């Protein structure tokens, strides 16, 4: 593993640890000191509420996934033309392989819709019937946030059971993360929560539209930036190392 691979793996692990710490902190306050949790969320910084700052931070994270900003990794950036490096001319044989790849990815998308719907409907149904409150829905969202980082840094069930990709770079549902993490917030009435769910849905629509419109950008046979020889990520988690 090269220095860049090691650095990427370490950053992913640090991200997982930070998300886990946030989840455990909120879970502890929600379970034992709920008033403190509410006071923290409603606290004001120069006239701006803490929850508004957190909302803005989440918006920026989702927008980062949707825009071709500098420094974006290939996993989330492969939908953009700027990250597409053609492998060569599109011969009739290659076009057939692209169509076959597109059909396989369509199957993956259908399977993923079912799984992600379950992730959203579990907290949603519990909330609608009154079994959990808004804080619990937010805890579900934070738990999914930890799970998102776990998939990248430790082990990804989507790769093994749904997408069957070799790594994050070739994953056709990589940027479904925002809708999985923030989608449950749609059940909490209010602008600050439902706007995040809506923006996450837009990120999903953008990803799927470009995947269908430009499948060659997502296929390592046609986009050389996705190949192992050009990988700068965590090669240790690749199924073909």
Automatic annotation (TrEMBL):
Transmembrane segments: 12-30, 50-69, 113-132, 138-158, 179-205
Alphabetical UniProt keywords: Membrane, Transmembrane, Transmembrane helix
Keyword Transmembrane: yes
Protein name: Uncharacterized protein
Species this protein is from: Candidatus Wirthbacteria bacterium CG2_30_54_11
């Amino acid at each position: 593993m090269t220095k860049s691979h090691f650095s990427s793996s370490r950053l992913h692990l640090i991200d997982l640890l930070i998300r886990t710490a946030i989840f455990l902190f909120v879970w502890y306050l929600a379970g034992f000191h709920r008033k403190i949790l509410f006071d923290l969320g409603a606290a004001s910084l120069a006239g701006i509420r803490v929850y508004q700052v957190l909302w803005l931070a989440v918006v920026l994270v989702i927008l980062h996934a949707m825009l071709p900003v500098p420094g974006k990794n290939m996993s989330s950036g492969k939908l953009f033309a700027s990250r597409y490096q053609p492998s060569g001319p599109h011969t009739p044989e290659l076009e057939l392989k692209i169509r076959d790849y597109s059909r396989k990815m369509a199957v993956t998308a259908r399977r993923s819709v079912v799984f992600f719907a379950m992730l959203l409907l579990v907290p949603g149904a519990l909330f609608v019937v009154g079994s959990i409150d808004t804080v619990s829905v937010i805890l579900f969202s934070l738990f999914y946030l930890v799970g998102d980082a776990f998939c990248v840094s430790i082990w990804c069930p989507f790769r093994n059971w749904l997408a069957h990709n070799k790594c994050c770079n070739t994953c056709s549902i990589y940027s479904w993360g925002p809708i999985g993490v923030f989608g449950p917030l749609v059940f909490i009435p209010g602008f600050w929560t439902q706007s995040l769910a809506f923006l996450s849905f837009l990120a999903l629509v953008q990803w799927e539209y470009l995947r269908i419109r430009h499948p060659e950008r997502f296929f390592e046979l046609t986009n050389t930036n996705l190949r192992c020889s050009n990988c700068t990520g965590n090669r240790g988690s690749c199924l073909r190392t």
